TrEMBL record:
It holds the Pfam family Zn_peptidase. One of its GO terms (cellular component) is membrane. This is Metalloprotease. The chain crosses the membrane at residues 21-41. PANTHER family: INNER MEMBRANE PROTEIN, PUTATIVE MEMBRANE PROTEIN YPFJ. Its main location: membrane. Keywords: Membrane, Transmembrane, Transmembrane helix. It is a single-pass membrane protein. It is found in: Membrane. The keyword Transmembrane helix applies.
Length: 286
């Protein structure tokens, strides 16, 4: 994808290289698997999990030291910031077209572990959006895991899709969708609550597609193979694909993010339509 030449963003924080003075959420074993299953691309569940996992892992600490970034890491930083800038421009335009004002979230890159407004996070958590501080958190090591362990194609647009998905959760927070979803979950069975969570995640995929549509019109940034990279990533993080890979069988009632087919379909619907009014994923479960 074509990304150079973008302006800088005041909402980008590169905290990579910082070491933590205390313990953080364990990234391996059964805890890591639980985090990965529940939180891949999904910030809504991080707040619920954090108190329990912090008790298990013994608390967390604030970053105490920072090393210099390598030239490769600096280039990664420029790329991530360029994607963030594109989300800022696109969503500001979409909100303006709908007589609303877009509030720009921050995006934080970290290494190994970091203390967030939703508690501690590690690369095992997957990229996530924290509504408590309205920030997206990412350890770029996740994308290597996505390729080596879950078979994603990789590539720069796969990363862009992930960022756009997380920004989609921010849009849901601004529009009140996330709050409404949590209210709808009250009193529901676990299976019914999970369906609502799936709808929220699929809508974030749809918003990622809408962003791609607008950004292509505004910046002509797509190159051959970019959409395939996004679809490969969406496939890899489907609940069915993750469960089949990790536990060898699929339990549909436990899905919280949607199947590979659903995630790809909703991304493509957003990309082809570019119309935020066509993203009522909750209609499918009514």
């Amino acid at each position: 994808m074509k990304w150079s030449g973008r302006r800088s963003s005041e909402n980008f924080e590169d905290r990579r290289g910082m070491s933590s003075g205390g313990k953080t959420i364990v990234g391996g074993g059964i805890i890591g698997i639980i985090i990965l299953l529940l939180n891949t691309f999904g910030g809504e569940n991080v707040q619920m999990l954090t108190p329990i996992l912090e008790q298990i892992s013994g608390g967390n600490g604030a970053p105490t030291e920072q090393r210099d970034l390598t030239p490769a890491e600096i280039e990664e930083s420029k790329f991530i910031e360029a994607i963030l800038v594109d989300t800022e421009d696109v969503w500001a335009k979409i909100f303006q077209e709908n007589n609303m004002q877009y509030e720009r979230p921050n995006l934080v890159l970290f290494t190994d572990s970091y203390v967030t407004g939703c508690g501690s996070a590690t690369s095992a958590s997957g990229p996530f959006y924290c509504p408590a501080d309205q920030k997206v958190y990412m350890d770029l090591a996740f994308f290597e895991e996505l390729k080596t362990k879950f078979g994603a194609q990789g590539g720069d647009f796969a990363t862009a899709y992930v960022i756009a998905h997380e920004i989609g959760h921010h849009v849901q927070t601004l529009l009140g969708t996330s709050t409404k979803m949590r209210q709808m979950q009250e009193g529901k069975s676990q299976a019914e609550a999970n369906k609502l969570s799936v709808a929220l995640e699929l809508q974030a995929d749809f918003y990622a597609g809408v962003w791609t549509h607008y950004n292509q019109k505004m910046n002509n940034f797509l190159e051959e193979g970019d959409i395939d990279e996004a679809l490969s990533a969406a496939h890899a993080v489907g609940d069915d694909a993750i469960q089949a890979k990790i536990q060898g069988h699929i339990v549909p009632e436990s899905f919280t993010h949607g199947t590979s087919a659903q995630r790809k379909a909703w991304f493509m619907k957003g990309y082809k339509s570019g119309d935020i009014n066509q993203g009522d994923t909750f209609a499918e479960i009514r």
